[in-house]
Every structure is written in structure tokens, then in C-alpha cells.
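Fold it.
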Amino acid sequence: MSNPLIHDVVIAGAGPVGLFLACELRSAGVSVLVLEKSAHPDSPLKALPFGMRGLSAPSIEAFYRRGLLAALTPPKGPAAHWEMQARRPGGHFAGIQFFHDKIDTAKWPYRIAGPVPTSLATTMQQVESILAERALAMGVEIRCGLGVESLEQSDDMVTIRAGGDSLRARWLVGCDGGRSTVRKAAGFEFAGTDPEFTGYSIQVVLEDPAQLAVGRHYTAAGMYTYQQPGTIAMVDFDGGACHRSEAITLEHVQEVLRRISGTAVTVASLELATTWTDRAARQPPTAKAACCSPGMPRTSTRRSAARA
């Protein structure tokens, strides 16, 4: 069905980037429609423990400027294993942990000191909830269960097909992740590196939890972290072979966990699981960019690195 209404901007993806952009555009008086492919974007993977996120200083400052920082409260739940270490962890890079007492803030000469912290723990669930509430209050229209399927561009608009509907907008912005439909349909390049491992985030019930040591552990077969009673993240250096290639079963998780941990641990039940890899790609600066001149592309994607 064709919709005669022309939105100023249609944004594909109701994640933090898409929702924050929608709020910014509405503050400038732009009409915005956000399309979210998932019918139920409130996944349990966005809550604790797997939904925990550490915001960077620029992100914290952006929330502060828009009066949203106070709503980002620290997540409530059991202390993570790294919070119980004698030295305060500062984070990790590619799984290599570093400590807060080794961070020299004097090395940040171009950051202006302000009233906000340089790091903040929250959850993906909280970030999206706060931004969605603000977007709706500002007049942004959000439609869940509708993903961009295809698009056609002309000099003055882009026609978007989503869920059997035909929508029109002056601009279409792709904030729909590393496998962006908008990026592919518009022909944006996405260069990067292939994965070296499959990562697993799982919530399980173990028959014999004492076989696994709490904390982060590096082994000859990979790496795993364990937090009682059954929160596990593990890395299997298989070239990303098991990421999104097959269903994640209890038997498969148990086999990988035993091999990586070097134990005979038994998984009694698998409650939650997802996979991820270290595949890294970005849209090069030379890719097509949206601009205001007639005859130029009316689509754009967030130019950044992406992992999947």
C-alpha cells in the first residue's frame, strides 16, 4: 500500500544511534519516522548481565547536553566478577584486561574537563528505553516489526518498501547495524576483516559449577569468563564458523565449554544464548555520502566501525 505522506527523514533501526538521531532531528523541527525490524526490540539480551554497556566520555557528554544523563542509573544486580578484584579494572581491549591505575588522563589533552564522568555503566535496555521515551514525547513516530526491504531513489526523494507498505521520505538514514539493509541496497562499501573466533554469551544451569573457576581465564583452546551461578562468556578460535550458522544447542554449548575450559563440566539446561565474532568492518570515508544538492543520493548510513 502506498502512503502519500512524505516524511522529512526515515531512519532504519531503533537502536541507540537511530533513536538519538531521531531526537536530534525532531529538535530541529524535522518530521521523523523510525522503522525497527524487530517486533519486540526489548530482548532479554539487552538487560543484565549481557546487556551491560560502558558508555564512552563523548556519549556521556551527549546525554548530559540533552538532559538525559540523570536517567541513566547504574544497573542493579549481582556484582560482576571483575568488580571483586583487588585492582580496579579499567576495561579490556580484545580480551586483554588493563587496570584503572594504569590510565593516565593527562594523555587526553584535547578533552575539556566538565561536570560529567569519563565512564559510566548502564544497560542497552535502559539506553533504548530512555531514548524511545524521549523520541515519542518529541513527536517521533516509531513502528516496530517493519524493516526496510528495498528502496528506490530519485532526485528529490527515496521510496522505501517495508512490510508491504511503500513509504516516501526526503532522506533515508541507515542505523540498522552491521548487516544493514540500507547500506546494501544503496551500494555503500563496507570493508574490513574476517572473524577469527566465535564468541558465546550464555546463561546456563550447571550440574557441577565447582568445576569452573570464577573470573576470566585464558586457555590453550580459547578464553572464558564465569560468574556464578551460571553466566558464561567464552571465545572459540574457529574462524567464526559457528556464528549464526546453526542453532545454539545445549549439546554444542557443553562441547565448546568443556574443550575451552579443559573440564568435564555438565550443562543441565541452557536458558539464554547468543553468539558474536571479532569481524570488524567500516564504511570508508570515500563511500557515497548524502548531501543537499539535487541529483545526489538521498540515503546515508552511519559511518563507523561495526562488529557482528
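The longest strand covers residues 2-12.
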